[in-house]
Records
---
Amino acid sequence: MCGIVGYVGFREAAGVLLEGLRRLEYRGYDSAGVAVKVNGRLEVVKKAGKLQVLAESLKERALPGTLGVGHTRWATHGAPNDPNAHPHSSEDGRLAVIHNGIIENYLPLKEGLLQRGHVFASETDSEVLAHLIEEKYQGNLYQAVRLALQEAHGAYGLVVAHQDSEEIVVARTVSPLVIGLGEGENFVASDVPALLPYTRRVIFLHDGDMAAIGKEGVRLTDLKGNPVQREVVEVDWSLEDSEKGGYPHYMLKEIYEQPWVLENTLGGRLREESATAELGLKLDPARYDKVHVIACGSAYYAGWVGKYLIEALARVPVEVEVASEYRYRDPVADQKTLAIVISQSGETIDSLEAIREAARKGAGTLGIINAKGSSITREVDDTLYIHAGPEIGVASTKAYTAMIAAMSLVAVWMGRAKGRLQDQPAAEFTAELRKLPRLVEEALEERPEIARIALKYHQASDYLFLGRHIQAPTAYEGALKLKEISYIHAEAYPAGEMKHGPIALIDEHLPVVVLTTESPLYEKTVSNIQEVRARGGRVIALATKGDSEAKKFAQDVIYVPRTHHLLAPIVSAVPLQLLAYETAVCLGRDVDQPRNLAKSVTVE
Ligand code: G6P
């Protein structure tokens, strides 16, 4: 994902920026650029491709100067070419902007700017910030950025330099930014590794924070201009630790990345005015009268959630199947079938072969994929990237919730195109989708309670997970996470089906996780819980905040924020990931690389 570095001090900025960006390379990117103040003028060099390409250009065109900003970009809006690379300059070239995240209202902002005569050099949402700040600038960069951010909404880690300013101005909402404090020099970066060669004293910005960074000091305020105080933290991380963002495992880091990953998946694709999703796809959703969803592992469960979403919002019948079965069963697909393949890696061979099979039958093919340019993306008619960034932990976490978010977008896109999703429910659903990043942040706050529950039950030899309707796949994903990384045997069942078999397993040793979030089937799920309680089973309920009943029928309750019942699988996946994680840690398992599993399975 995109990396940010900014520097003000006494060293040659270009060297600091390049070194910092190198240390963020592991996040993945496809273009890079820097802006450095040289003799009172901002000079920008930016290139598609790897940092080496940028470094070569900087050899030919040296940028001596001690204030600068640098960026590695992982393309979301617009192709990975030179003009779309950051920094983005204002038209007068006096200021340069670097931005991670998505400006959700960039289209109306851009229209306004175009009407006022601005000319754009790129296809990015980020460039609107350069023009907007330029308009607001009256000699004070900090004020100009602050005023621009009253109009621009969305997610941003924003870093701005101006040739008349001795300070860099930064702001954060959702996308992380960390300030590094030095002596006679200060830094900013999207991630700690970029700072480690120079300083270990850092300030992590919070949502809604702004800062003006000069070489002798840093001023912190909120977006209204009120001063704020933030703790200075001494980081004692090794480089490897810092790649994990200070978390002990990649999996935990990735669990915590979900708020901004969801912002990446959804942001810029929802159209508030028309309550629809604009996915930039060539495929015409109105053409298809059935959908086949093909995937493996966690992606399969995300696809199963997608079935409920598409059937509810677009009223199109959906079949979901694991790819290894689909590819060999001569599926009934034709030109009126849209085949959707979901894959984090884009390399899973069964998924690839299955989508080839659907294409041979004439189906339209859509990939919901994380890894850019992966094999599946080269074979499908269209790809909807989930923009989750590199996922290193073998057990999928952030990619899973991002896949469901992407399937929600597909459901809205189909429902609207087919005229089956009316204005009012569309507006309600898309408004709830928008809230997801914040809700997931709230869900993460339950970690201490989840850790307590994990400890209480970590010696169980089996676990059962139950859920109904759109929460049935969540139960399966919860069980999969637990068995993958803790090696505890876990089984999942649709709650209503439990009485036809698994009920025989229930005794006082079996923890049973039941998904009882608000839904039209709430009452029925609660009666399924009574069946577990009556047989001495230990119930861990996952309930919606404010549900005062849950405590009465469950020994332990994990609360999740209220959302649209069709989006409950996203907020509910988070505590189940944490439950698996905390259990595996109690048992001393290799969380990031569980035995026998591979991140990307390229054999049959
Ligand atoms: C492997 C991984 C799973 C993943 C599955 C599908 O089994 O261990 O975590 O869900 O492959 O991978 P994909 O890259 O296609 O999403």
Note: The chain has a mean pLDDT of 93.
---
Amino acid sequence: MLQQTQVQTVIPYWNRWMATFPDVHALVAAPEDRVLKLWEGLGYYSRARNLHRAAARIVGSEAGRFPDTVESLLELPGIGRYTAGAIASIAFNKPAPILDGNVVRVLTRLLALRGDPRTRLPQEFLWARAQDLVTASEGRGDIRMPWGERLGDCSALNQSLMELGATVCLPKGARCEICPVQTRCRARAEGTQERYPETAPRQAPIQKVHAAVVVEQAGSMWVRQRPAGGVNAGFWEFPGLEIPDPVDSVRRHVAGWLGVPEDRLAPLPPIRHAITRYRIQLETFHATGIGLPDVVGSAGRWVDRQELEALAFTAAHRRIVRLLPKAGMPVA
Ligand code: SF4
């Protein structure tokens, strides 16, 4: 849950998840719809599907217990080198390296490492140094936290590296004066802290306009499920399309797509959201009295407002639900 997501955002999701799925068996027994519903709004939905699949793999495995080595962790769906290293070291105190954005910043500054750390050679070099550090920490004794918890040595080393990057070796304004490794830091000695890491600038975001239509009939709305294998697979959404650029009127374009008069589409406030590099403006319309246009397709179903609440929607389409006029109110 914490990949690409802040702790404050994750906490309520974590609490709900753990209350619903207290162990791996409970997760395996749940239908995918239920799993996605609990992840609704958290984004990067392949994480939820991978957790579900990984749980099934663990329960069905010969050992029937959570893997504790990098190699066996890497065999689980959705677990890459970083996550495998984090689990093996933090949870099982194995001398496995980790390399996330914070650790990369600390190490590139400590070593004054030139080159983009996202490219192969600098990255392999950093993995090797992260391995050296965690290997050297092994056998140095457990650390006791102020609140009494014992941390294994490898677990403590990796968590300290991440914490150092998150709280001291900041991207802008590194707090070198309180840094515990300041005397060993080459960037500090050279006064070049902010030059590292030498990451190439990100590509510019791409602007897009999409449209979604809530087709309502006798209190029910037409929704469809996103196909397997694509973006946001398994989530429900209102039908819609991408709007070509340029277009003189989004509403006219959508009316033409549906084959209905333009005045049957009541605009709702637009929604802005982002998916990876894309900055999407989602123009939304509420349509009543138009039946079910052919173009919307037969692969969907009518649901009333109660069912709408129970289905898993992506964050943008959940916001559309919140924008709908209350039942019984005039549409426009
Ligand atoms: Fe980062 Fe400064 Fe510490 Fe070097 S001395 S690791 S630049 S905080």
Note: The pocket of iron/sulfur cluster is lined by residues 106, 109-110, 168-169, 174-176, 179, 181-182, 185, 187-188, 193 (CB under 6 Å).
